[in-house]
């Protein structure tokens, strides 16, 4: 016992007074152990904690023994932009022994592996996907119409829609959740798995420990259930074979699997393929679901913007994705939604500085330091009196003002702060498809319905119950969709 006390005592003294980060401000207990941070965010509210710490300690906060959180518009480009010198943190080993171009720490593998993702989202591929997304959007409208004037649980219907779209685009297989109005067990497994990982994202070794020691624990079972679902769907897709009339993303990943035959063992290629499928399932369903829930919330909260979109789209073919992409208020509404509620990486993803360190806003960050940039906080930057000499990136940052993106550019002082899909070589390859879904669903629903909050629903619920669990998990949203005369 004495030896352990001496060991932990010396570690504490070193981390507080002699560590390379000892001069950076932050909570003292955070400097001693990362478990302090895990405990503080045990209810999955890391985005709120980091915003609070930003107000107390400034733009550079020591949030772990060897970790700094950077809050400033330039942070995203430094961590992920072209020419960045950072590498990915151990968090990206989460899927081990499976892995993917997204969930890996090898720069070369990431660069080469992204090609299949990029190719699966080219103009040719998207032209094949758009009509199928449109058909599912109309199924979503029919599903909502079946509720009549009864309140609709927006979380449920958007979960069904996003999962159906993911299945169709990724595997060429519509899961028919909208038509059956049932929650697939895979969705519950996904949500349970993310709930496990969310609070311990900054100490991911705890997740690996749970996988090893308590496989019977319910959230671990959810993780294993999600993995099995992805593997089963992939196996079914392989058995069906390619359908040239209904192309899907899986074919690009299967082609990649074949092309790696000479450079990887079969086992490694199989682990890589299943890791890719898991990544695509979560990224392709959960982030869009969160963004669509927020879209409905903002449409109900701000009917004046809903009316502007209706006027803008009145004489437009709602299934013309190219035209929808050119409409200023519609697109600005979506940008403002994503700014206030980024669906992925609300508190950033961890990077490690290179051997030369990094310069952030006139401050030198030492080499081999874990750094994060909280997307939620940076896209809501407020002026700080002690350490920031300029105004926030977005004046009136907590207000919903779509016009800032086209007719009031003075309300965007630093566009670098807006990165809902990251930037540079690490930017989300599904960005184009996500925007297309959001535009089409918003246009279609506004064309057919007046969207209002349910009478007994508290609009603050979405924000009050928001969880930061790798992806954003909005609180419940209950709306009434009143049919409009066509």
TrEMBL record:
Gene3D superfamilies: Cytochrome P450. It is found in: Membrane. Keywords: Heme, Iron, Membrane, Metal-binding, Monooxygenase, Oxidoreductase, Transmembrane, Transmembrane helix. Its main location: membrane. The keyword Chloroplast does not apply. It comes from Bionectria ochroleuca (Gliocladium roseum). It holds the Pfam family p450. This is Cytochrome P450. Belongs to the cytochrome P450 family. Its cofactor is heme.
